[in-house]
Amino acid sequence: MTAEAMTPDRGRYRVAIIGAGFGGLGMAYYLKQAGIDDFVLLEKAQDVGGTWRENTYPGAACDVPSRLYSFSFENHYPWSSRYAPQPEILGYMRHCADKFRLRSHIRFGAEVAQARYDESDVCWRLSLGDGSTIEADHVVSAVGQLHRPSIPAIPGLETFQGRYFHSATWDHDHDLAGQRVAAIGTGASAIQFVPAIAPKVAKLHVFQRSPGWVIPKFDRVFSGTEQWLFRRFPVLHDVDRFRIKCLTETLARAYAGNRWIEGTVSALSRLQFKMQVRDPGLRARLKPDYPIGCKRILLTRDWLPTLMRDNVEPVTDGIQEITAGGIRTEDGREREVDTIIFGTGFAATQFLTPMRVTGRDGRDLHEDWARGAAAYLGMAVSGYPNFHVLYGPNTNLGSGSIIYMLECQQRYIVSLLQAQDEQGWSTAEVTPQAERAWINEMRERSAGTTFEGGCQSWYVTADGVNTNNWTGTMREYRMRTATPDLAAYRFETGADKPKRRAA
User: Taking 60 as the threshold, does the pLDDT of residue 500 lie above it?
Assistant: First the structure.
């Protein structure tokens, strides 16, 4: 029997979760732990995994150590290496879905097109892509930030006679052997797939808009002895996780303006550039001119040596246009290519797109977020009762594990639901005052970080406002979300008008 067939097909649920990635699976786990079984998990695809199901490009792997990039409730997992590759992470997620019996709650092939709040019935109505409708008291959006590939509007792309695709939608049927290939973009995906494909292609042109800060990725396969020790003494998993957490928290302080830590990391990056790029002229073209951390730091030991290969050409001149047979740069030179691969990231600042969310009085969430997404604790928006966002605005990390942040949010939402049950409140809605105070704090704190250091980054809007990244440590966020501040919400009891709980 398939997971979809096992899923209860009912019209109304206590909670509807959108997305079966790390956010959705973790949310389902914590609901079950709290004794809340009346929920459905809506997944547009036919399997769990989210971004780790979709991103299958060569060399795809995590840049956060496996021990920290995992659920705290399933941390004793036999990872094969320090940094897990994509297939292993996807396997881990499938393992969690099976072990904790989450599949029976998942409705696969269920893409949510619209979520609309019905004030008269005090519920959310979710319209699915197949035309059906589901009702829920609460909605938890777990669609993430990195699920909509971004391809830049380069003139002439429609005229290209070769094959082109984004790294997030890799064409595995297209053989690159012996091809002339253009890789556009030099971010976190490109630094993985470029070294993976370089040995098989005839020529590889790597087009760089702006260089990235690079530091060594100390990856390795765990030995048989280490694997035995982890199995024999499970506490070693926890010790290793704590050690990694401390290191990432230290790095996070560099983003927040700790000049000593920032200087140390910058020096490590400069040393790597000096050791791996011997040509001073090329080194100057590849080194960034913005503060470290303004863009995501790239962890790799293969990227710079790959750019030194005889069949690889780093191109730092801007792209003027794409022609029928290649790419012309601003210096007038045209490079003939057979395939173009876009490693140009995601539309990360367009939160929840393309799903439409309609709250009280017909308010449209995307209109409310037209000048930049913002939410109280990254999870709640005034005007949208019982609507919760995982991995929302200002909850991404420059250093650390987003899964750690997700678990903070998942536990918080469960605590809020339990408080509503205890008091008999049908809805919880963050007050405009609490939301505004949080937004102001995020704006003030971001102004003193490298996230708004003046570079073009998926962390910020076109206006340079940091809407994506958390500006503190994971520990601080855990403390801020440990217990819901009920005074920050207004509540409804049945059909009563919203009323704020007294502090």
Answer: no
